[in-house]
Amino acid sequence: MYNKGNELLKLCNEQNKKISEIVIAKEMAERGLPYEELIDNMKLVLDTMISSSKSALNKEVISVSKLTGGDAKKVEKYKNMGNTICGEIINSAMAMALSTSEVNASMGKIVAAPTAGASGILPSAIIIVSEKYNLSEKEMIYGLFTAGGIGEIIAKNATISGAEGGCQAECGAAAAMAAGAIIEMIGGEPETSLHGASFALLNIMGLVCDPVAGLVEFPCALRNASGVINALVSADLAMAGVKSMVPFDEVVEAMYKVGKAMPESLRETALGGVAATPTGEDIKRRIL
Ligand code: SF4
Fold it and tell me: 5-287 in CATH: which number?
């Protein structure tokens, strides 16, 4: 049906449909599932996302390694003090992204979207936008289908693996999925969604994957916090009418080439970046 962004856009324009509607039609055809079952399945995904985004806001969720945890609670408390630099929405989004990352590091239930390491970004973006615009559960579910469609294109034409393409492929893909989704959720056109998705990838192109001690904790959780802000900023840029000079498909291809050009030490091996700092090495020795 479609493999690239321009093919997806063509279908949206020809059929006068949203990205989510095209993705749903494709899923129904390919998986042979009725509409109701597809929606019910995605509702389960949404429920898990909401749970992981909220569960570490008011209680410390510590990782299995005991290396990280409690930061979501700190940011939530800071936000509630009402004197943040970035304001309530940004801080709330960061807290929720951290929450899912902490649930992941504690072996709790999350939705890999597109991966476990980047699982905090999409849920936080969907929730914060639905809260601000008072959107329905159905609109959130449709947003997740849009995100899924964008993620599938990135996975098919590039990679969503930190081991293959660095953190740009994980947190970048998650932010692109989130930006495209929230743009549609607030009434943006399909083309606008792809501009937002392009910005999210462009904004962190080249970001390396360097988890300390090889654990998906530090700096991963922080990159989820900044990743959701990347999605929000990218969506606002696109909704303001700013356009990506380079089309989405070419941005995806560029991201893949950058990932391939990265040395192995910067692709989830924990041999470079912050993982290879004296402190990173010391933590690795202590934990492992
Ligand atoms: S640093 Fe690597 S392991 Fe951590 S979130 Fe990014 S891609 Fe995933």
Answer: 1.10.4100
